[in-house]
Amino acid sequence: MVRLYDYAGSANCYKIKLLLAQLERPYETVDVEIFRGESRTPEFLKKNPAGRVPVLELPSGEYLAESSAILAYLATGTALWPEAPLPRARVLQWLFFEQYEIEPTIGTVRFWKLTGRDKSQLDLFAKKSDQGQNALTALDRHLEHRSFVVAETYTIADIALYGYTHVAAEGGFDLSNFPAIERWLKRIEEQPRWVPGPPPYSALAHG
Predict the structure, then answer these.
(1) Could you read off the pLDDT tens digit of each residue along the chain, which spans 207 residues?
(2) Whose CA is closest to 156, among 57, 88, 63, 104?
(3) Cα–Cα distance between 111 and 89 in angstroms, integer?
(4) What domains are there in the chain, each with its CATH number?
(5) pTM of the model
(6) DSSP readout, 34-71?
(7) Rg for the chain (alpha carbons), in Å?
(8) 164: nearest Cα among 153, 154, 175
(9) Would the CA dihedral through 192, 190, 102, 123 be positive or negative?
(10) What is the DSSP-derived secondary structure letter of residue 150?
(11) Distance from first CA to last CA of the chain, Å, rounded?
């Protein structure tokens, strides 16, 4: 059985739990209170030198970090991670887009807004909000005539993008301006064994 080192409020961790639920794969969780410094201890840094969650511990005792890498590992051999070169490359394209355009903008804006940190970083908050708006515009344009991110097939690219996009409203983004995204979110939530998340940040997260 795999073990997930997890911070409940993290959408990056939620992506992994959504995939595990949909694969019906049993797993253990180890809660890591990142705002208490538990991801920065010498012991944890041996698991992931970057000091971040999620981290997946494999039955072999090896560790795998970075949410996109974990998604790809867990989905290997399933339709969620295509084997053909071009569909697989397109999944990678959107995994990269999510980590470069969505998570650092929408994820950051949401975190700052929910924890009250936005008030001390007004200029940067506005800049990242604009960047997040641009990312949502690009994603909405791509999804206008598609059921899922890679043609008609639900893949880990959808799971990765869903993680922060579906909670974008908590960062002040008006998803009603993105009708293709709203339809796509609904389709994901209709997938078998979909589970909601992530829960609110812990009290320690509030600045």
Answers:
(1) 999 999 999 999 999 999 999 999 999 999 999 999 999 999 999 999 999 999 999 999 999 999 999 999 999 999 999 999 999 999 999 999 999 999 999 999 999 999 988 777 778 999 999 999 999 999 999 999 999 999 789 999 999 999 999 999 999 999 999 999 999 999 999 999 999 999 988 888 886
(2) 88
(3) 30
(4) 2-76 (3.40.30.10), 85-189 (1.20.1050.10)
(5) 0.97
(6) GGGTTTSSHHHHHH-TT--S-EEE-TTS-EEESHHHHH
(7) 17
(8) 175
(9) negative
(10) B
(11) 36
Beta bridge partners of 55: 5, 65
Report CA torsion sign: 143, 24, 96, 207. Answer: positive
